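wait is this the right file?? whatever heres the structure
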Protein backbone atom coordinates (compact mmCIF):
# COMPACT_ATOMS: atom_id res chain seq x y z
CA UNK A 1 0.00 0.00 0.00
CA UNK A 2 3.05 2.21 -0.02
CA UNK A 3 2.13 3.49 -3.49
CA UNK A 4 -1.01 5.23 -2.16
CA UNK A 5 -1.07 8.80 -0.93
CA UNK A 6 -1.31 9.35 2.81
CA UNK A 7 -4.96 10.46 2.56
CA UNK A 8 -5.99 7.22 0.85
CA UNK A 9 -4.04 5.07 3.29
CA UNK A 10 -5.70 6.87 6.20
CA UNK A 11 -9.19 6.15 4.81
CA UNK A 12 -8.36 2.50 4.19
CA UNK A 13 -6.58 1.96 7.48
CA UNK A 14 -9.55 1.01 9.70
CA UNK A 15 -11.15 -1.38 7.23
CA UNK A 16 -7.71 -2.76 6.45
CA UNK A 17 -7.40 -3.86 10.06
CA UNK A 18 -10.69 -5.74 9.73
CA UNK A 19 -9.49 -7.43 6.55
CA UNK A 20 -6.25 -8.47 8.24
CA UNK A 21 -8.21 -9.84 11.19
CA UNK A 22 -10.61 -11.85 9.05
CA UNK A 23 -7.87 -13.24 6.84
CA UNK A 24 -5.83 -14.24 9.85
CA UNK A 25 -8.79 -16.02 11.42
CA UNK A 26 -9.34 -18.20 8.35
CA UNK A 27 -7.82 -21.61 9.03
CA UNK A 28 -7.46 -24.10 6.21
CA UNK A 29 -7.09 -27.04 8.56
CA UNK A 30 -8.50 -27.08 12.10
CA UNK A 31 -5.88 -29.62 13.17
CA UNK A 32 -2.80 -27.69 12.02
CA UNK A 33 -1.42 -24.46 13.46
CA UNK A 34 -1.16 -22.48 10.23
CA UNK A 35 0.36 -19.08 9.86
CA UNK A 36 -3.11 -17.55 9.66
CA UNK A 37 -4.16 -19.18 12.92
CA UNK A 38 -1.06 -17.90 14.69
CA UNK A 39 -1.71 -14.41 13.36
CA UNK A 40 -5.28 -14.61 14.62
CA UNK A 41 -3.98 -15.67 18.01
CA UNK A 42 -1.66 -12.66 18.18
CA UNK A 43 -4.41 -10.26 17.11
CA UNK A 44 -6.79 -11.68 19.72
CA UNK A 45 -4.07 -11.49 22.39
CA UNK A 46 -3.44 -7.82 21.55
CA UNK A 47 -7.17 -7.11 21.68
CA UNK A 48 -7.56 -8.78 25.10
CA UNK A 49 -4.67 -6.75 26.49
CA UNK A 50 -6.19 -3.53 25.18
CA UNK A 51 -3.58 -2.80 22.52
CA UNK A 52 -5.44 -0.54 20.01
CA UNK A 53 -3.48 -1.70 16.99
CA UNK A 54 -1.60 -5.02 16.98
CA UNK A 55 0.84 -3.62 14.44
CA UNK A 56 2.79 -0.41 14.37
CA UNK A 57 6.06 1.15 13.32
CA UNK A 58 7.06 2.41 16.76
CA UNK A 59 10.17 0.78 18.29
CA UNK A 60 8.05 -0.22 21.27
CA UNK A 61 6.39 -2.91 19.18
CA UNK A 62 9.57 -4.95 19.43
CA UNK A 63 8.95 -5.19 23.18
CA UNK A 64 5.22 -5.86 22.71
CA UNK A 65 5.91 -8.80 20.41
CA UNK A 66 8.64 -10.11 22.73
CA UNK A 67 6.12 -10.11 25.57
CA UNK A 68 3.68 -11.97 23.31
CA UNK A 69 6.39 -14.55 22.52
CA UNK A 70 6.92 -15.05 26.26
CA UNK A 71 3.19 -15.66 26.67
CA UNK A 72 3.39 -18.28 23.90
CA UNK A 73 6.34 -19.96 25.61
CA UNK A 74 4.42 -20.09 28.89
CA UNK A 75 1.46 -21.91 27.37
CA UNK A 76 -0.73 -19.09 26.05
CA UNK A 77 -0.80 -20.45 22.50
CA UNK A 78 -3.34 -21.93 20.12
CA UNK A 79 -3.52 -25.32 21.79
CA UNK A 80 -2.53 -24.14 25.29
CA UNK A 81 0.54 -26.38 25.25
CA UNK A 82 2.86 -25.68 28.18
CA UNK A 83 5.99 -26.80 26.38
CA UNK A 84 6.67 -25.84 22.76
CA UNK A 85 9.81 -26.42 20.76
CA UNK A 86 11.84 -23.38 19.83
CA UNK A 87 11.04 -24.04 16.15
CA UNK A 88 7.32 -23.73 16.89
CA UNK A 89 7.77 -20.49 18.84
CA UNK A 90 9.89 -19.20 15.97
CA UNK A 91 6.93 -19.93 13.71
CA UNK A 92 4.71 -17.73 15.88
CA UNK A 93 7.25 -14.89 15.66
CA UNK A 94 7.56 -15.20 11.89
CA UNK A 95 3.77 -15.21 11.51
CA UNK A 96 3.57 -11.97 13.47
CA UNK A 97 6.33 -10.52 11.32
CA UNK A 98 4.25 -11.27 8.24
CA UNK A 99 1.38 -9.21 9.64
CA UNK A 100 3.71 -6.24 9.98
CA UNK A 101 5.15 -6.70 6.49
CA UNK A 102 1.65 -6.81 4.98
CA UNK A 103 1.16 -3.31 6.31
CA UNK A 104 4.60 -2.14 5.17
CA UNK A 105 5.96 -1.96 8.69
CA UNK A 106 9.33 -3.23 9.93
CA UNK A 107 9.07 -6.74 11.43
CA UNK A 108 9.48 -6.49 15.23
CA UNK A 109 10.98 -9.97 15.70
CA UNK A 110 14.20 -9.78 13.72
CA UNK A 111 15.39 -13.32 14.40
CA UNK A 112 18.68 -12.76 12.61
CA UNK A 113 19.60 -10.02 15.10
CA UNK A 114 21.09 -11.60 18.25
CA UNK A 115 20.19 -8.46 20.22
CA UNK A 116 16.51 -8.50 19.23
CA UNK A 117 14.27 -9.23 22.23
CA UNK A 118 12.25 -12.01 20.59
CA UNK A 119 15.41 -13.53 19.10
CA UNK A 120 17.03 -13.67 22.54
CA UNK A 121 14.02 -15.50 24.01
CA UNK A 122 13.87 -18.02 21.18
CA UNK A 123 17.64 -18.56 21.10
CA UNK A 124 17.60 -19.24 24.85
CA UNK A 125 15.03 -21.97 24.21
CA UNK A 126 17.13 -23.41 21.40
CA UNK A 127 20.25 -23.42 23.55
CA UNK A 128 18.45 -25.30 26.34
CA UNK A 129 17.11 -27.85 23.86
CA UNK A 130 20.57 -28.43 22.42
CA UNK A 131 22.11 -28.91 25.85
CA UNK A 132 19.40 -31.35 26.86
CA UNK A 133 19.86 -33.39 23.68
CA UNK A 134 23.66 -33.36 23.77
CA UNK A 135 24.27 -34.31 27.40
CA UNK A 136 24.29 -37.94 28.43
CA UNK A 137 23.07 -38.93 31.89
CA UNK A 138 25.32 -40.77 34.27
CA UNK A 139 24.50 -44.35 35.21
CA UNK A 140 25.18 -46.75 38.07
CA UNK A 141 28.52 -47.96 36.67
CA UNK A 142 29.86 -44.43 36.25
CA UNK A 143 28.65 -43.45 39.71
CA UNK A 144 30.29 -46.52 41.22
CA UNK A 145 33.58 -45.59 39.57
CA UNK A 146 33.32 -42.04 40.95
CA UNK A 147 32.81 -43.49 44.44
CA UNK A 148 35.72 -45.93 44.05
CA UNK A 149 38.10 -43.15 43.02
CA UNK A 150 36.93 -40.98 45.92
CA UNK A 151 37.45 -43.81 48.41
CA UNK A 152 40.97 -44.26 47.07
CA UNK A 153 41.81 -40.60 47.69
CA UNK A 154 44.31 -39.96 50.43
CA UNK A 155 42.22 -37.11 51.79
CA UNK A 156 38.53 -36.23 52.11
CA UNK A 157 39.39 -32.75 50.86
CA UNK A 158 40.35 -33.85 47.34
CA UNK A 159 38.49 -32.94 44.16
CA UNK A 160 37.43 -36.58 43.74
CA UNK A 161 35.97 -36.73 47.24
CA UNK A 162 34.08 -33.50 46.59
CA UNK A 163 32.77 -34.81 43.27
CA UNK A 164 31.44 -37.96 44.98
CA UNK A 165 29.47 -35.81 47.43
CA UNK A 166 28.21 -33.49 44.69
CA UNK A 167 27.05 -36.41 42.53
CA UNK A 168 25.43 -38.16 45.50
CA UNK A 169 23.38 -35.04 46.25
CA UNK A 170 22.74 -34.33 42.57
CA UNK A 171 20.95 -37.66 42.12
CA UNK A 172 18.21 -36.18 44.28
CA UNK A 173 18.05 -32.48 43.44
CA UNK A 174 19.44 -32.27 39.88
CA UNK A 175 21.19 -28.92 40.45
CA UNK A 176 22.04 -26.47 37.72
CA UNK A 177 25.77 -25.82 37.41
CA UNK A 178 25.57 -22.25 38.71
CA UNK A 179 23.91 -23.51 41.89
CA UNK A 180 27.05 -25.20 43.16
CA UNK A 181 30.06 -24.46 40.92
CA UNK A 182 31.96 -21.44 39.63
CA UNK A 183 33.20 -20.41 36.20
CA UNK A 184 36.67 -19.76 37.59
CA UNK A 185 38.54 -21.78 40.22
CA UNK A 186 39.50 -18.67 42.15
CA UNK A 187 36.56 -16.35 41.59
CA UNK A 188 33.01 -16.35 42.99
CA UNK A 189 30.12 -15.93 40.54
CA UNK A 190 27.45 -13.45 41.62
CA UNK A 191 24.14 -12.24 40.25
CA UNK A 192 23.75 -8.46 40.08
CA UNK A 193 20.27 -7.01 40.58
CA UNK A 194 19.12 -3.82 38.79
CA UNK A 195 19.60 -2.00 42.08
CA UNK A 196 23.29 -2.87 41.99
CA UNK A 197 23.21 -5.29 44.92
CA UNK A 198 24.71 -8.74 44.38
CA UNK A 199 24.04 -12.26 45.57
CA UNK A 200 26.27 -15.34 45.40
CA UNK A 201 24.79 -17.84 42.97
CA UNK A 202 26.19 -21.07 44.39
CA UNK A 203 25.20 -22.88 47.57
CA UNK A 204 26.85 -21.76 50.78
CA UNK A 205 26.83 -23.62 54.08
CA UNK A 206 24.10 -21.24 55.25
CA UNK A 207 21.74 -22.67 52.64
CA UNK A 208 21.54 -26.01 54.49
CA UNK A 209 19.74 -26.71 57.76
CA UNK A 210 20.25 -30.16 59.26
CA UNK A 211 17.79 -32.00 61.51
CA UNK A 212 18.04 -35.00 63.83
CA UNK A 213 15.50 -37.79 64.36
CA UNK A 214 13.52 -35.58 66.75
CA UNK A 215 13.26 -32.91 64.02
CA UNK A 216 15.47 -30.60 66.06
CA UNK A 217 18.04 -28.47 64.23
CA UNK A 218 21.58 -29.80 64.51
CA UNK A 219 23.41 -26.67 65.56
CA UNK A 220 26.83 -28.21 66.19
CA UNK A 221 27.48 -30.15 63.00
CA UNK A 222 30.81 -31.93 63.31
CA UNK A 223 32.50 -35.25 62.57
CA UNK A 224 31.10 -36.59 65.85
CA UNK A 225 27.49 -35.41 65.30
CA UNK A 226 27.15 -36.09 61.59
CA UNK A 227 25.67 -39.55 62.23
CA UNK A 228 22.75 -37.96 64.11
CA UNK A 229 21.61 -36.06 61.01
CA UNK A 230 18.42 -37.49 59.49
CA UNK A 231 17.27 -34.72 57.14
CA UNK A 232 18.42 -31.54 55.44
CA UNK A 233 16.47 -28.52 54.28
CA UNK A 234 17.98 -26.90 51.18
CA UNK A 235 17.14 -23.33 50.20
CA UNK A 236 17.81 -21.80 46.80
CA UNK A 237 18.46 -18.11 47.36
CA UNK A 238 18.46 -17.52 43.60
CA UNK A 239 17.39 -19.73 40.69
CA UNK A 240 17.32 -19.59 36.93
CA UNK A 241 13.52 -19.89 37.04
CA UNK A 242 13.48 -17.00 39.54
CA UNK A 243 11.64 -19.03 42.17
CA UNK A 244 14.04 -17.53 44.67
CA UNK A 245 13.79 -18.70 48.26
CA UNK A 246 12.39 -22.12 47.32
CA UNK A 247 13.19 -24.90 49.79
CA UNK A 248 13.21 -28.69 49.54
CA UNK A 249 13.81 -31.14 52.38
CA UNK A 250 15.60 -34.45 51.83
CA UNK A 251 15.40 -37.43 54.16
CA UNK A 252 18.47 -39.49 54.95
CA UNK A 253 18.96 -42.82 53.20
CA UNK A 254 19.43 -45.03 56.26
CA UNK A 255 19.73 -48.21 54.17
CA UNK A 256 22.56 -46.96 51.96
CA UNK A 257 24.51 -44.48 54.06
CA UNK A 258 27.39 -44.30 51.60
CA UNK A 259 24.94 -42.95 49.02
CA UNK A 260 22.94 -40.78 51.39
CA UNK A 261 22.31 -37.24 50.03
CA UNK A 262 21.96 -35.82 53.54
CA UNK A 263 25.31 -37.15 54.72
CA UNK A 264 27.00 -36.07 51.48
CA UNK A 265 25.70 -32.54 52.04
CA UNK A 266 26.97 -32.58 55.62
CA UNK A 267 30.39 -33.74 54.41
CA UNK A 268 30.54 -30.80 51.98
CA UNK A 269 29.79 -28.36 54.79
CA UNK A 270 32.43 -29.90 57.04
CA UNK A 271 34.97 -29.94 54.21
CA UNK A 272 34.40 -26.24 53.49
CA UNK A 273 34.88 -25.42 57.15
CA UNK A 274 38.07 -27.49 57.36
CA UNK A 275 39.38 -25.45 54.46
CA UNK A 276 38.49 -22.27 56.41
CA UNK A 277 35.75 -21.29 53.98
CA UNK A 278 33.23 -18.88 55.61
CA UNK A 279 29.65 -20.18 55.87
CA UNK A 280 28.43 -17.38 53.60
CA UNK A 281 30.76 -18.33 50.75
CA UNK A 282 30.44 -21.17 48.17
CA UNK A 283 30.99 -24.55 49.81
CA UNK A 284 31.98 -26.61 46.74
CA UNK A 285 35.67 -26.22 47.42
CA UNK A 286 38.58 -28.67 47.51
CA UNK A 287 42.32 -28.77 48.18
CA UNK A 288 44.94 -29.64 45.57
CA UNK A 289 48.01 -31.79 46.19
CA UNK A 290 49.94 -28.54 46.55
CA UNK A 291 47.65 -27.45 49.36
CA UNK A 292 45.80 -24.77 47.39
CA UNK A 293 42.05 -24.38 47.89
CA UNK A 294 40.06 -24.08 44.65
CA UNK A 295 36.42 -23.82 43.70
CA UNK A 296 34.78 -26.60 41.73
CA UNK A 297 34.10 -25.55 38.12
CA UNK A 298 32.17 -26.94 35.19
CA UNK A 299 35.44 -27.74 33.43
CA UNK A 300 36.77 -29.70 36.41
CA UNK A 301 33.54 -31.67 36.71
CA UNK A 302 33.63 -32.58 33.01
CA UNK A 303 37.26 -33.66 33.33
CA UNK A 304 36.54 -35.99 36.27
CA UNK A 305 33.32 -37.41 34.83
CA UNK A 306 34.91 -38.15 31.46
CA UNK A 307 37.87 -39.74 33.20
CA UNK A 308 35.52 -42.14 34.98
CA UNK A 309 33.79 -43.05 31.72
CA UNK A 310 37.12 -43.71 29.99
CA UNK A 311 38.30 -46.00 32.78
CA UNK A 312 35.24 -48.26 32.75
CA UNK A 313 34.55 -48.03 29.00
CA UNK A 314 37.87 -47.44 27.25
CA UNK A 315 36.39 -48.03 23.79
CA UNK A 316 33.90 -45.16 24.08
CA UNK A 317 34.21 -42.83 21.03
CA UNK A 318 35.55 -39.35 21.70
CA UNK A 319 32.29 -37.74 20.59
CA UNK A 320 30.35 -39.81 23.12
CA UNK A 321 32.83 -38.94 25.87
CA UNK A 322 32.17 -35.25 25.22
CA UNK A 323 28.49 -35.76 25.99
CA UNK A 324 29.33 -36.05 29.68
CA UNK A 325 29.50 -32.74 31.49
CA UNK A 326 28.21 -31.05 34.64
CA UNK A 327 24.77 -30.89 33.03
CA UNK A 328 24.74 -34.70 32.94
CA UNK A 329 23.92 -34.58 36.65
CA UNK A 330 20.63 -32.76 36.09
CA UNK A 331 19.77 -35.04 33.17
CA UNK A 332 20.49 -38.09 35.32
CA UNK A 333 18.32 -36.89 38.21
CA UNK A 334 15.42 -36.53 35.79
CA UNK A 335 16.05 -39.94 34.20
CA UNK A 336 16.20 -41.67 37.59
CA UNK A 337 12.77 -40.36 38.61
CA UNK A 338 11.32 -41.24 35.22
CA UNK A 339 12.70 -44.78 35.46
CA UNK A 340 11.12 -45.16 38.89
CA UNK A 341 7.73 -44.27 37.42
CA UNK A 342 7.28 -40.91 39.11
CA UNK A 343 4.65 -38.61 37.63
CA UNK A 344 5.53 -35.50 35.60
CA UNK A 345 4.21 -33.30 38.42
CA UNK A 346 6.48 -35.06 40.92
CA UNK A 347 9.52 -34.64 38.65
CA UNK A 348 8.78 -30.96 38.12
CA UNK A 349 8.25 -30.35 41.82
CA UNK A 350 11.33 -32.12 43.12
CA UNK A 351 13.69 -30.93 40.38
CA UNK A 352 12.23 -27.41 40.30
CA UNK A 353 10.88 -27.08 36.77
CA UNK A 354 8.05 -24.63 36.19
CA UNK A 355 7.07 -25.99 32.77
CA UNK A 356 7.37 -29.29 30.93
CA UNK A 357 10.85 -28.71 29.53
CA UNK A 358 12.05 -31.63 31.69
CA UNK A 359 10.69 -33.91 28.95
CA UNK A 360 13.71 -32.99 26.81
CA UNK A 361 15.88 -34.68 29.45
CA UNK A 362 14.14 -38.06 29.34
CA UNK A 363 16.15 -40.86 27.76
CA UNK A 364 15.46 -44.28 26.27
CA UNK A 365 17.50 -46.10 28.92
CA UNK A 366 17.89 -49.86 29.40
CA UNK A 367 15.64 -49.63 32.46
CA UNK A 368 12.85 -48.06 30.40
CA UNK A 369 13.38 -50.65 27.69
CA UNK A 370 13.04 -53.51 30.19
CA UNK A 371 9.96 -51.88 31.71
CA UNK A 372 8.41 -51.90 28.25
CA UNK A 373 9.08 -55.64 27.93
CA UNK A 374 7.70 -56.28 31.43
CA UNK A 375 4.58 -54.23 30.67
CA UNK A 376 3.71 -56.54 27.80
CA UNK A 377 4.54 -59.80 29.57
CA UNK A 378 0.95 -60.52 30.54
CA UNK A 379 -0.26 -60.02 26.98
CA UNK A 380 2.62 -62.11 25.60
CA UNK A 381 1.85 -64.98 27.95
CA UNK A 382 -1.80 -64.88 26.94
CA UNK A 383 -0.86 -65.22 23.27
CA UNK A 384 1.54 -68.09 24.01
CA UNK A 385 -1.16 -69.93 25.96
CA UNK A 386 -3.61 -69.54 23.08
CA UNK A 387 -1.04 -70.81 20.60
CA UNK A 388 -0.30 -73.91 22.68
CA UNK A 389 -4.02 -74.55 23.10
CA UNK A 390 -4.90 -74.58 19.36
CA UNK A 391 -6.49 -77.88 18.14
CA UNK A 392 -4.26 -80.07 15.95
CA UNK A 393 -6.57 -79.79 12.92
CA UNK A 394 -6.35 -75.98 13.03
CA UNK A 395 -2.54 -76.15 13.21
CA UNK A 396 -2.50 -78.57 10.27
CA UNK A 397 -4.77 -76.31 8.24
CA UNK A 398 -2.51 -73.34 8.94
CA UNK A 399 0.54 -75.21 7.65
CA UNK A 400 -1.30 -76.10 4.42
CA UNK A 401 -1.83 -72.43 3.57
CA UNK A 402 1.83 -71.38 3.97
CA UNK A 403 2.64 -71.75 0.27
CA UNK A 404 -0.64 -70.44 -1.12
CA UNK A 405 -0.22 -67.00 -2.67
CA UNK A 406 -2.62 -64.32 -1.60
CA UNK A 407 -3.98 -62.63 -4.74
CA UNK A 408 -4.56 -59.38 -2.86
CA UNK A 409 -1.14 -59.23 -1.22
CA UNK A 410 0.18 -56.44 -3.44
CA UNK A 411 -3.08 -54.53 -3.66
CA UNK A 412 -3.78 -54.25 0.04
CA UNK A 413 -3.75 -50.81 1.51
CA UNK A 414 -5.03 -49.50 4.81
CA UNK A 415 -5.32 -45.77 5.06
CA UNK A 416 -4.67 -46.02 8.80
CA UNK A 417 -1.27 -47.70 8.35
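ok assuming it is, sequence goes like this
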Amino acid sequence: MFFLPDRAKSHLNDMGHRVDRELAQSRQDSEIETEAARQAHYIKWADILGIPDPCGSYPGYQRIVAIYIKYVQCGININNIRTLRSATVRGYAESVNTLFRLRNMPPPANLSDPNNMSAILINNMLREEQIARQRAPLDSEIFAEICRVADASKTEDSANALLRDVVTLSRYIGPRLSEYAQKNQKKVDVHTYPSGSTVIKAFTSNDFIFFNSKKHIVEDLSASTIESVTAVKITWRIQKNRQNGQSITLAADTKSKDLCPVLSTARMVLRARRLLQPDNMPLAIYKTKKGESLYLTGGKIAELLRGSVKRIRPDTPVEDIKRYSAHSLRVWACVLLDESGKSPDYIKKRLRWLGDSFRMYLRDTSVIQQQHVDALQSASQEVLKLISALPEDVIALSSMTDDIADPNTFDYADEMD
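The longest strand covers residues 231-236. so i think its the right one actually
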